[in-house]
Design goal:
The protein is 83% helix and 0% strand. It is built from 8 helices and no strands.
Length: 174
């Protein structure tokens, strides 16, 4: 069992890295636009994957304000149904995206990342949304190597978002 004060300090340390992660994402995005030799392109994809994983597990990976506004907009009578449907939709994307990645099917990855970009953005999961956009670009380019490099981090972020949405749903009146 993790001591709660240790977990709290770790969460604070992760939260403090937000600005550095944003700078790193901007730098990696600029590099992605450059002509790079194969090994450098691979290293860039690995760095992108690691960054997306860090963003996905960072406390605050889901903007509570955006998610709360979504629930407020839905109203108390619809919020439980909304979170349930969002969970179902996210799980559907998780299953299909994992299969698409396993089969190196760029069309499936493209279609599922489109849905994920929308769902993650709606929920306020900006890092996951950006990761899904990057994975979508790889799918559109038919770059299966990059899809495989970025896929696990996006799937991990998606699983974390599902956990967040389902935890929020448990706290709502039915």
């Amino acid at each position: 069992m993790v001591d709660s004060s240790v977990a709290h300090r770790s969460a604070l340390n992760l939260r403090d890295t937000g600005p550095q992660l944003a700078v790193l994402r901007a730098a990696l995005t600029r590099l992605a636009g450059c002509a790079l030799p194969g090994p450098a392109r691979l290293a860039l994809a690995e760095a992108h994957q690691a960054l997306t994983a860090l963003e996905a597990i960072q406390p605050g990976a889901v903007d509570d304000g955006v998610f709360a506004a979504l629930l407020a907009l839905a109203g108390p009578e619809v919020a439980a149904e909304l979170t349930l449907q969002m969970s179902v939709d996210l799980r559907r994307v998780l299953t299909a995206l994992a299969q698409g990645l396993a089969q190196s099917d760029a069309r499936v990855v493209d279609a599922q990342t489109h849905v994920l970009v929308m769902l993650a953005g709606t929920a306020g999961a900006r890092g996951l949304q950006q990761g899904a956009q990057a994975l979508n670009r790889a799918a559109l380019a038919g770059d299966t190597a990059q899809m495989h490099d970025m896929g696990p981090a996006v799937l991990a972020g998606l699983a974390a978002l599902i956990g967040f949405v389902e935890a929020a749903a448990e706290g709502l009146p039915r």
